[in-house]
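ARCHIVE CARD
CATEGORY: sequence design from structure
SOURCE FIELD: tokenized fold
FIELD CONTENT:
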């Protein structure tokens, strides 16, 4: 290969790498390597191409060969460190970045890379020191500022992380990435209203940012400001009319608003234009009732699922959609087969340890004794405005919320995360973790937490005499709710365990519900939940009201008269026709709760009895 041909081949390889055509780059580089077998630049380029192709071990080997030829190459050591980070080899990454910093102690890539490697080993203090040194060199680097905040957050110091990002936004308001990171960080800390306020402030500095508009739309949807979310998604689509994710988000908002006809038009259009984006099929399947085995939607879904290029998450969506269709058709064998496959695919993508959950619930039972709750309750807020509707997902919490909201004196704030946030923030300021830090709680902490919760309630619902917080997972924080608000109504929704668990198994949930995708694990979680709720009922007595899903759908007037009486609310016939008043629902029950009270889901588990051995074993564990 003459030098001219060599240069031409090298240029092709470099161009291919720039375009992320890694396999093409490998072909060119291998040709060059035959002529120049020990050139550091070629071997570093080979490492890049191999890494881009997912061959990390081979990339590390080539990078090391290059470093044998050029021991002082800072870029080579940084490249090797990055490869070890990708392979999650933190010690080896640290060693590589150390080598780069020996050559140049002020190398930004070396300092930031070593900080990332140190954070992987949970040495957050050393990681923060490296990032602070890097900021001394490049104080306006958004990448380094964001990395510093992430390290502070990972160490558990959320306040320090927030202060870092807020100061950065003030100092460098033109750096869009800083605003985006602060918004998502606040959202991650369950401070949705603060996240939304930050997003709106950022839009003053970046009025044409579509990324901020999208963030604002997402926050509006989560805050149940559905009309605003609808307007923002429509504006975004004006700029990006063919964006499938935006079209999906808009369709979901329309469905939540009850505009099901328009929502279905969008979902069907998406299935035609983006057949491999299967969320639309899942929504179509949820929204309709299949009555014909030859339904064209069913035929189309069966056709799409055969496509080999479907990624795991899209394949999972389709299995859940087909499971729903076959369940409607009473073809329970096919239905369960699809649900089983969809759950298995989803389970591989998440971390869940039933032992951790069981241990945490045991600690709650030990700490929240009747004596401790009674002693702390004396400092609680006297407001009776909050109504906590809690229990397992799919136990009837959304249905009860909508039924109660038909009452003229009741409003809903949706699913608030404020109880869990308040518990987490209190624990971060203490020596012991939650719940053991409850021993450090004083009257001023209780009054402050209660006032903060009430402020969040007022933001979401300003008119109702009683306002519902329908976060099912608040069953974990029932004791805290009882302490903060001694006069609040606490309602525990209960449903047949097999029906509850099976209904959970038939759904894909948002983040935070990791226990749903394996029947044995689901049974173990439910058993731990029952143990915790038995404790809350024992220590709270009549303060915790039990509402039976089965009674609610079979004898609604009797069940609701008793409940409203315990809530000190007058009877209203409107609660028996809640479906006439439902305007917006943003949970997985959005289609079911628009129907009149009915017994259609009662004892549904009997259709799948032959498949429930693992669930029964988990429940009996």
């Amino acid at each position: 290969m003459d030098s001219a041909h060599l240069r031409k081949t090298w240029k092709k390889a470099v161009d291919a790498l720039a375009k992320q055509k890694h396999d093409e780059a490998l072909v060119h580089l291998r040709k060059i390597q035959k002529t120049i077998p020990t050139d550091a630049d070629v071997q570093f380029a080979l490492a890049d191409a191999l890494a881009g192709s997912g061959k990390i071990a081979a990339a590390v080997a080539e990078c090391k060969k290059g470093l044998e030829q050029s021991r002082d190459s800072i870029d080579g050591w940084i490249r090797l460190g990055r490869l070890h980070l990708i392979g999650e080899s933190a010690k080896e990454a640290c060693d590589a970045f150390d080598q780069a910093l020996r050559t140049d102690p002020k190398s930004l890539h070396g300092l930031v890379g070593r900080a990332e490697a140190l954070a992987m080993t949970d040495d957050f203090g050393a990681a923060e020191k490296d990032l602070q040194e890097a900021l001394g060199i490049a104080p306006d680097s958004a990448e380094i500022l964001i990395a510093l905040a992430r390290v502070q957050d990972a160490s558990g110091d959320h306040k320090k992380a927030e202060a870092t990002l807020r100061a950065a936004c003030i100092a460098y308001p033109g750096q869009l990435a800083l605003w985006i990171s602060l918004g998502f960080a606040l959202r991650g800390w369950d401070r949705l209203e603060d996240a939304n306020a930050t997003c709106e402030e950022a839009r003053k500095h970046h009025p044409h940012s579509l990324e901020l508009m999208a963030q604002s739309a997402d926050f509006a949807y989560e805050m149940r400001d559905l009309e605003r979310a609808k307007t923002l998604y429509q504006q975004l689509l004006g700029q990006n009319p063919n964006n499938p994710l935006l079209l999906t988000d808009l369709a979901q908002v329309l469905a939540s608003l009850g505009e099901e006809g328009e929502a279905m038009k969008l979902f069907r259009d998406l299935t035609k234009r983006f057949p491999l984006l299967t969320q639309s099929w899942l929504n179509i399947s949820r929204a309709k009732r299949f009555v014909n085995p030859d339904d064209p939607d069913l035929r189309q879904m069966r056709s799409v699922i055969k496509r080999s290029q479907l990624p795991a998450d899209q394949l999972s969506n389709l299995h859940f959609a087909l499971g729903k269709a076959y369940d409607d058709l009473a073809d329970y064998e096919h239905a369960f087969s699809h649900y089983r496959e969809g759950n298995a695919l989803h389970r591989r993508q998440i971390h869940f340890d039933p032992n951790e959950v069981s241990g945490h619930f045991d600690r709650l039972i030990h700490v929240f004794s009747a004596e401790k709750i009674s002693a702390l309750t004396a400092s609680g807020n006297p407001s009776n405005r909050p109504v906590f509707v809690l229990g397992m997902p799919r136990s009837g919490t959304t249905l009860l919320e909508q039924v109660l909201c038909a009452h003229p004196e009741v409003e809903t704030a949706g699913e608030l995360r404020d109880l869990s946030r308040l518990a987490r923030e209190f624990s971060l300021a203490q020596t012991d973790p939650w719940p053991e830090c409850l021993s450090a709680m004083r009257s001023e902490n209780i009054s402050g937490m209660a006032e903060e919760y009430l402020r969040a309630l007022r933001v979401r619902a300003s008119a109702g005499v009683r306002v519902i917080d329908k976060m099912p997972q608040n069953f974990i924080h029932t004791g805290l709710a009882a302490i903060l608000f001694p006069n609040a109504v606490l309602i525990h929704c209960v449903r047949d365990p097999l029906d509850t668990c099976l209904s959970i198994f038939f759904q894909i949930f948002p983040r935070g519900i990791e226990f749903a995708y394996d029947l044995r694990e689901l049974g173990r979680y439910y058993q731990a939940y029952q143990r915790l709720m038995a404790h809350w009922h024992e220590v709270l007595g009549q303060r915790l009201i039990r509402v039976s899903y089965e009674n609610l759908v079979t004898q609604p007037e009797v069940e609701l008269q008793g409940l409203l009486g315990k809530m000190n609310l007058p009877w209203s016939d409107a609660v028996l026709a809640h479906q006439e008043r439902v305007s917006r629902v943003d949970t997985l029950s959005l289609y079911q709760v628009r129907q009149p009270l009915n017994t259609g889901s009662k004892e549904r588990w009997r259709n799948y009895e032959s498949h429930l051995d693992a669930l029964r074993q988990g429940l009996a564990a």
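CARD ANNOTATION: The chain has 31 helices and five strands. The beta strands are 386-391, 410-412, 466-469, 489-494, 544-548.
SHELF: design records, drawer C
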